[in-house]
User: What shape does this take?
Amino acid sequence: MRIKFIEDIKHKIGKWVFLRELKLNKRIKSVCNLEDAKSIGILYEATSQEQILEIKPLVKYFFGLRKDVKAFGYVNSKKYDECHIPKLQYDFFNLKDLNWYYKPQNDYIKNFVQQEYDILINLSDSSCIPIKYLVASSLARFKVGQHEDGYEIYDLMIKLDKKEESVKKLIQEISKYLKVINR
Assistant: This one.
């Protein structure tokens, strides 16, 4: 009971800091479609190899369109597995990179957040606080993610039916809308 109480306090402080940083973010907002985008950042949960494999086709697709792509995955563990070896388009951060209220902090996280991606895509749901921090503090021009009540962190929000909620379906919908938006 005591541990849950402490975790709840950490979450509430983290949410307060998150909302404050969201208000302070001074980025240039600009709607961007897939054709016009030169750089794309992707945030996702990467604890398991299956989660990494799920986003690989999207990264490959964007890379095939000659986009500068960086997939940044959050590993909900203090240790990395073999599948978490950084590669050209893939980087990872884990629990060791978070402060006590779950805010991600280190140099490569800072570099990712300060990169002015034309499009930033969040493939995780609202329960992943570290990724939400990155979305909120990112200087990306056009932010895309799954609809979340009470959070105005995206420029384009995709709402999925409860029975269809999956990363694969979210990827399909985001790809569809990025092709037709702003034409």
